[in-house]
Amino acid sequence: MKTILHKAETRGHADHGWLNSHHTFSFANYYNPDRMHFGVLRVLNDDAVAAGMGFGTHPHDNMEIISIPLEGDLEHKDSMGNTTVIRHGDIQVMSAGTGIRHSEYNKNTDKAVKFLQIWVFPDRRGVKPRYDQISLNPADRQNKLQQILSPNADDAGVWIHQNAWFHLGKLEKNFTAEYALKATGNGVYAFVLSGNVNISGHQLSSRDGLGLWETDKITVQADSEAEVLLMELPME
């Protein structure tokens, strides 16, 4: 098994007043040649958008974009005609493909909205752009790994154009979950949302990230009440 550890305090950071963002991988004005991606995982941004503020209309292409709201309500509008609001418990996905334009705003006027923005390189270019979102029950990840994303439209969660599976787990102290990788050649990037965990022998705290590859399974032991995101993806 090979691993790479990214402690929370080593991430890139940008505070624009209306946006407070931490970047696990190089993004915008944060550039680190040793932190460009983990396999096909290109962007993992931990964003907080101030009340009533947001990202104006901007373009994307040839990228699978996943948003996971953590707190508050995020309003989305795009060039495909979608106007939606995503909240904690929702998972949003966009296949940018040949090109889309969209905006994202904090719908709340009294509190920040916090969410993860994740970009994954697709397994093919030039697909027809699409948008989807689903609502999941966070209770279904209590002491288990709830699948939130896969390569298959008929499987649990949203789907993307990539051989990837994402799971969220909310674990009680001393609970241990085991994750078996689904595809040969894939790795797992684990991101701790809260609490303290031991992942295959590595101690992690809130907002730490750990990449693991050349293995067929990993273990996640909660050293406190904890929530963790596991992203299984191709390494090439």
Write up this protein.
- This protein has 236 residues and is mostly beta strands.
- The chain folds into 2 domains: 12-135, Jelly Rolls, CATH 2.60.120.10; 138-234, Jelly Rolls, CATH 2.60.120.10.
- It is built from no helices and 22 strands.
- The strands form 4 sheets. It has a 7-stranded mixed sheet, with no helix packed on it. Strands 2-3-4-11-6-9-12 form a 7-stranded antiparallel sheet, with no helix packed on it. The protein has a 4-stranded antiparallel sheet with strand order 5-10-7-8, with no helix packed on it.
- A hairpin with a 2-residue loop joins strand 18 (197-199) and strand 19.
- The radius of gyration is 17 Å and the shape is globular.
- The two termini are 16 Å apart.
- 36% of the residues are buried.
- The mean pLDDT is 97.
Set out the fold topology.
Elements: E1 2-6, E2 12-15, E3 19-23, E4 41-49, E5 54-60, E6 64-71, E7 73-78, E8 83-87, E9 90-95, E10 100-106, E11 113-120, E12 130-135, E13 145-150, E14 158-159, E15 165-171, E16 176-180, E17 186-194, E18 197-199, E19 202-204, E20 209-213, E21 217-222, E22 226-234
Parallel strand pairs: 13-14
Antiparallel strand pairs: 1-20, 2-3, 3-4, 4-11, 5-10, 6-9, 6-11, 7-8, 7-10, 9-12, 13-15, 15-22, 16-21, 17-20, 17-22, 18-19, 18-21
